[in-house]
Design goal:
The complex is a heterodimer of chains A (412) and B (297). Chain A has 412 residues and is α+β, with helices and mostly antiparallel strands. Helices cover 17% and strands 34% of the residues of chain A. Chain B has 297 residues and is of the alpha/beta class. In chain B, helix 3 links the parallel strand 2 and strand 3. Classes of the chains: A alpha+beta (412), B alpha/beta (297).
C-alpha cells in the first residue's frame, strides 16, 4: 500500500460568525494541545487588561487593525502537532464582507470546523458557510455547537440545532457531517471531554481531528501531470511538475497533451533519488521516451483516461473583488500552469446563498457574489470537474489592468 | 521520511519551481541561518540535475556572527551559486544610511533599506525568503506570493486572495514579489527535515562554551565590537543559538544540546518560542508588522 502525503498532515478551516467564539476555540485548541507557548501566552495576557482571564482571540488576530476593530479580517494560519498528526489551521473570518477569505481558506482544507452559537442556532451566516464549504468540496464538516454553558448544557437544544443543520446540509451533498457540543472558553469537548455534558457520548474536537479518515478523498485514479516547467537545456528535456492526481509509475505508457503523442516514462526522480512511483502531491521530474518537445501547461495523462480538452465550460464563480464583473472585458484565466485570455460568455444565474434561490436575469455581479457562468478561453484547456479533481477543476481570474486576482472558479 | 515532511518538501519545491517558471530574475535571500539553509537544500533538490537557477542575496549588517559568514561562504561554494552581498556597514560609511542611535539593535531595521535598494538595482522580480507563518503573528497573515508595492512595503490590509496552488505571478511595474516556500513549516519541521536530510548547519546552533554578556536578562554573545570589558561582566556559559540574527540582537540559550536529536528534544520541552530571544522582535507587540510594512523580510 502506498503512503499518502496527506494522512499525517491535516489542513482544516475554522469558520464561524462574528461572535461565535471561533478565535477562542482555536486559542483553546492550541493552548491545550500545547501549540501555544508561554511567551505567546504572556504577550497576550499583557495586552488584555479589561477582561477576565486570557482572551484567546488575540492568538489569532495578529494585525493591528484586527485588534483595534476586534474582528478577524484576514485568513490566519496556525500550526500544531500531536503525536498522531500535524495540523494546519486556516482561520477564516466569518464576517460577510470577508467571504473571499473564506474561499481562500476552504480551497485547500480537508475538514471544516464550523461554529454555531447554541443560543442562536442555525443562522443565515451558517447556511452560507455550509454552502461555500460544500461548493469548495470540503469533504468533512464538524459542527461545534458552542457556548453550551449559556443554554444550561441542554441536550434538547443541541439535538434541535443538529436536526435543523442536518436538514439544511442534506440539500448540499455534504457527505460527512458530525456534531460536537462545546464550551470554548472553558475548553469543554475541545481537547478533553467534560463532566457537564455526560449525555454526549462522542469524542472531543481534537479526537475527531486526529482520527478523521481523509485518505480516500485523494484522487488516485485519473492520472494528471500538468507540466510546470521544462528545463532550458535540450536533450534530454526535463519535465518538472507535481502530480495533480493518479499514480505515475516507471514504465507507464502515457499520452501527451496537446499533441496526443504517446510516450513512456523512463525515469521518475526527485533530487538525486530515483523513485518507482509518484503519488498525488509529489513534486517530481519525469524523463520520457523519445524526448518529446513539451511546454509549461502541457499535460501528461494516460491514453485511456483523459481530461476534457475544451475552450468553453461551465463553472461556479466566486467574485472576490470590489471591481464588479464586466462581461465586456477579457480576463486572464489561470489553471494548471496555464494563463489564457478568457471571456465571460453567459451569466446563467446568480445564486442567493442565503435562500439558494437562482436569480435570473442576474443583476450585476459584485464582491462576494456567486454565479454560474459560461467561460470561453482563447485556446483549449485540459479540465476535469472540480468534484473529481481539485487541481484541474479550479481556476482564478485576474484583471488585465490591475493584475489583481478578482475571482475564483470551480468547473462543473 | 515522515509523510508530513514529504508533503511540506513537495510543496516548497513546487513553489520554488513556480518562481523560476514565472520570473526571469528571481533571487534567494540567504542569511546562513537554518531556514535559508533548508531553502538552499530544497532549491538544489528542486532543479537537480541542473544548477540552482538563481543567485543568493545576503544583506550583511556587519554585525553577523563570524561563524555564520564563514558557513554562508562555504555553502555558496558547495552549491556553485553566485552570492550577492548588500552591505549595511558600507551604506552607513558612504552616508546614504545614517548610523542608528541604538547601536545594538538599530542596524536590523536598516537591512530593509539595503534589501530594497539591491532588489531595485538588480531588477529582481521575486525574492524568495525563508520566513515561516508560525514564527510571528504578522507573518501568520502572509501570502505565499506576497506583492510588495510602494517601494517594497507590505500592505496587509488589502492582500490579494490566494486559492488552491494557483499563484498569481503577474507583476505590475515597480513592484516585486516576496515568495515564502516554507510558509507552512514550523520550527520543529525545519529541524526534523535537517535531521532526515542530514543537512549541514552552522556550529553555533549546537551548544558550545562561549563568552557572553547578560543584558536585561538575555545572554548576548561577547564581542569587543559591542561590549566594553571594563563596563560589562563577561561570563562563560554553555549556550547555543535558536535563531541566528545579528550578534547584538540574538539571545543565546543556555543549552547542553550538542546534536540535532538533542536540539529537537529541547524544542519539544521548551515553553518559549524561538523568536523569544530576538531583541529586534521585542520593541513592541507590532514590531514585525511595522517592519514588514516598511519592506523587511
Amino acid at each position: 500500500m502506498l503512503k499518502s502525503y496527506t494522512k499525517r498532515l491535516l489542513r482544516f478551516v475554522t469558520i464561524g460568525s462574528v461572535d461565535d467564539g471561533k478565535s477562542t476555540l482555536i486559542g483553546r485548541l492550541l493552548h491545550d494541545a500545547k501549540g501555544l507557548l508561554k511567551d505567546q501566552y504572556e504577550a497576550v495576557e499583557s495586552l488584555d487588561n479589561d477582561r477576565e482571564g486570557v482572551n484567546f482571540a488575540f492568538f489569532t488576530d495578529g494585525l493591528k487593525k484586527e485588534r483595534e476593530l476586534g474582528i478577524t479580517i484576514d485568513v490566519a494560519y496556525r500550526y500544531f502537532s500531536t503525536p498522531k498528526r500535524k495540523f494546519i489551521i486556516a482561520d477564516a473570518p466569518g464576517h460577510f464582507e470577508y467571504t473571499k477569505n473564506m474561499v481562500t481558506a476552504c480551497s485547500r482544507a480537508q475538514v471544516a470546523v464550523l461554529l454555531i452559537d447554541a443560543r442562536h442556532g442555525l443562522l443565515s451566516q451558517t447556511k452560507r458557510h455550509l454552502f461555500l464549504a460544500s461548493l469548495l468540496q470540503v469533504k468533512h464538516v464538524v459542527i461545534c455547537i458552542n457556548k453550551m454553558d449559556l443554554v444550561q448544557f441542554s441536550e434538547e437544544r443541541f439535538e434541535a440545532i443538529k436536526e435543523s443543520v442536518s436538514q439544511y446540509a442534506a440539500k448540499l451533498q455534504i457527505i460527512d457531517i458530525q456534531f460536537i457540543p462545546t464550551v470554548a472558553t472553558k475548553g469543554f469537548n475541545v481537547v478533553d471531554t467534560c463532566e457537564e455534558m455526560k449525555w454526549y457520548k462522542g469524542g472531543s474536537l481534537l479526537f475527531y481531528l486526529e482520527n478523521v479518515h481523509v485518505d480516500s478523498d485523494e484522487n488516485r485514479i485519473d492520472c494528471r501531470f500538468p507540466i510546470q516547467m521544462v528545463s532550458k537545456n535540450e536533450s534530454p528535456f526535463r519535465y518538472f511538475g507535481r502530480v495533480a492526481s493518479g499514480i505515475f509509475k516507471k514504465g507507464d505508457e502515457v499520452l501527451l497533451l496537446p499533441s496526443k503523442q504517446k510516450s513512456k516514462i523512463l525515469k521518475i526522480t526527485l533530487g538525486e533519488k530515483e523513485i518507482e512511483e509518484a503519488i498525488p502531491g509529489a513534486s517530481i521530474l519525469l524523463t520520457l521516451d523519445n524526448n518529446p518537445l513539451l511546454h509549461r501547461g502541457d499535460m501528461i495523462v494516460r491514453p485511456n483516461n483523459q481530461p476534457e480538452t475544451t475552450n468553453r465550460f461551465n463553472c461556479m464563480l466566486f467574485w472576490l473583488s470590489d471591481l464588479g464583473l464586466d462581461s465586456n472585458q477579457p480576463y486572464y484565466l489561470l489553471q494548471a500552469h496555464r494563463q489564457e485570455v478568457c471571456h465571460i460568455k453567459t451569466i446563467l444565474y446568480k445564486l442567493d446563498i442565503e435562500t439558494l434561490h437562482r436569480e435570473f436575469p442576474p443583476s450585476k455581479i459584485g464582491v462576494n457574489d456567486i454565479a454560474r457562468i459560461e467561460i470561453q478561453t482563447t485556446s483549449p484547456l485540459y479540465i476535469d470537474s472540480y468534484q473529481k479533481n481539485r487541481v484541474t477543476g479550479s481556476f482564478i481570474l485576474v484583471d488585465k489592468n490591475s493584475l489583481a486576482t478578482v475571482a475564483a472558479g470551480v468547473i462543473i | 521520511m515522515h509523510t508530513h515532511l514529504l508533503e511540506l518538501e513537495s510543496e516548497a519545491i513546487f513553489i520554488l519551481r513556480e518562481v523560476v517558471a514565472c520570473f526571469e530574475k528571481p533571487v534567494l535571500l540567504f542569511s546562513g541561518g537554518k531556514d535559508s539553509i533548508v531553502l538552499a537544500h530544497l532549491a538544489k533538490k528542486a532543479f537537480f540535475p541542473e544548477e540552482i537557477p538563481f543567485p543568493f542575496l545576503h544583506i550583511d549588517t556587519g554585525y553577523n556572527f563570524p561563524e555564520t559568514i564563514e558557513f554562508r561562504d562555504k555553502i555558496v561554494r558547495k552549491l556553485r551559486v553566485k552570492l550577492l552581498v548588500g552591505d549595511v556597514a558600507k551604506a552607513i560609511e558612504e552616508g546614504w544610511l545614517a548610523e542608528p542611535q541604538d547601536k545594538l539593535t538599530g542596524r536590523n531595521k536598516l537591512q530593509s533599506d539595503v534589501l530594497k535598494q539591491m532588489i531595485e538595482s538588480y531588477g529582481f522580480q521575486a525574492a524568495i525568503g525563508g520566513a515561516r507563518r508560525d514564527e510571528e503573528k504578522a507573518r501568520a497573515k502572509e501570502r505565499i506570493f506576497s506583492i510588495r508595492e510602494n517601494r517594497g512595503g507590505w500592505n496587509p490590509d488589502n492582500q490579494s486572495p490566494e486559492m488552491w496552488n494557483l499563484y498569481n505571478a503577474n507583476l505590475k511595474q515597480g513592484c516585486h514579489f516576496r515568495v515564502f516556500p516554507l510558509s507552512d513549516w514550523t520550527e520543529r519541521d525545519v529541524w526534523d527535515y535537517i535531521l532526515e536530510e542530514r543537512i549541514e548547519i552552522p556550529p553555533i546552533y549546537l551548544a558550545h562554551r562561549r563568552a557572553v554578556v547578560e543584558i536585561n536578562g538575555q545572554l548576548l554573545a561577547y564581542s569587543p565590537l559591542f561590549f566594553d570589558k571594563d563596563i560589562h561582566t563577561i561570563i562563560k556559559k554553555k549556550v547555543r543559538c535558536r535563531t541566528i540574527g545579528d550578534m547584538p540582537t540574538t539571545g543565546m540559550w543556555l543549552s547542553s544540546a550538542s546534536t540535532l536529536t538533542e536540539i529537537i528534544q529541547e524544542i519539544d520541552q521548551s515553553d518559549r518560542t524561538e523568536r523569544g530571544a530576538r531583541l529586534d522582535d521585542q520593541s513592541s507587540s507590532f514590531s514585525m508588522e511595522d517592519r514588514k510594512r516598511d519592506g523587511y523580510f
